[in-house]
Model the fold of this input.
Amino acid sequence: MRRKIITALAVVLVAGVIAGLLVSRWFSPTLPAPVLLPMTIAGSNAAFAVYPGSDGAMFIMPDGSLWRWGIGMRNPPSLPELFDDQHHWAKAFNRTDQWMEQDTDGNVWEERGGPSKLSPLPVTNEDWVDLTGGVAYALGLRRDGTILGWELNYGRAGQTNPITEVQTNFLWRAISAYGPPCMGVSSDGRLWSWQRNGFSPLTFTQPTLASTNTNWVGVAEAQFAWSSSGQLWGAPVERLNSTNAIPGRFALGSIVHEIRSDGTLWAIGTRGSPMTRRLIGGGLASFSFYSGRSVPNGNSLTSGSGKFQWRKIGERSDWVSIWGSDDTYYGLTSDGTVWVWGTDFGQEPMKTLKDTCVYLWEKIRDRFQPSASGTGLLGGGPAIMLTQPYQDEPRPLMRFKPVNK
Done:
């Protein structure tokens, strides 16, 4: 009898999933108009940059101010908003659980609840090249090739979380961490991987050689790497179309994007599952996760395999820069428009019919086959899963307008 009930419910759930997919095709979400910013980005040396993260992005504007867009925007249309203009910012970085920012004086700040709660790291006179890290720890690469690491106690390094040098017996030109995994390019151009394996003290495994090539120049998200000749590691394509890999002309993720010499934008790969969130207790507690993340193994499918093919994105031929993280991508065109596509944090998460069916199925499953421990990923209780919309084509997010002088 129980098997018949489960079979009947499974049929209903499958039908519901199909219906939900059809409904999502018929009703497109309403997209907000872009925010107009009264500043210019004229000139190739304009200090405009995008720093994507797991819940949105930070934008450093030509005037040095810092703007933010993503989950948690206070304005109703979910448009980018000013984060801080009291400092002159140089870069931003999103660890797996928190933002860090660096100003032009070399000071590093951690966000603790908003721009009015920026807290400086207790480090000074560091010639930082980059910042990275995973859950509960951070790493900083200095220009001399050494790495500093520190644990995080409620988001803060301090006396109980000393900043110490990470002993790897190498000098580094690039590093990246995402959770326990880490990747880096040593000073001789070789690609390495290692793992964080302990806290208090913060410890790591010794680096393992990932590639014998000696022309690697950069890493991202502890799973992607690129060489000076355009070779890729951990990506859905073996190499870029261009022979010279210049940061800002390509973006790595589950889909690889590239701006070609004629100014057109191309992509290759297949997107993973959209970002989803499960809310518990009416939204009092929440967490987010990604599925379908690729793993760097050096055996990526090539564009000639027949599974992946380059495809043109949009009709424009004036793309200037491109940035990406996970399943969200950002681009800048020559008219001063900033575009976004992929997982779209500017739209409210949707409770689809599929989400409801999954929730009901979990309740039924837990009723017939409860967890042995009574706990689990969600504390033993099912919860509604909300699906973040996915924007297939670039939509305008911000637009700079000329300033009368």
In short: The CA atoms of residues 38 and 404 lie 9 Å apart.
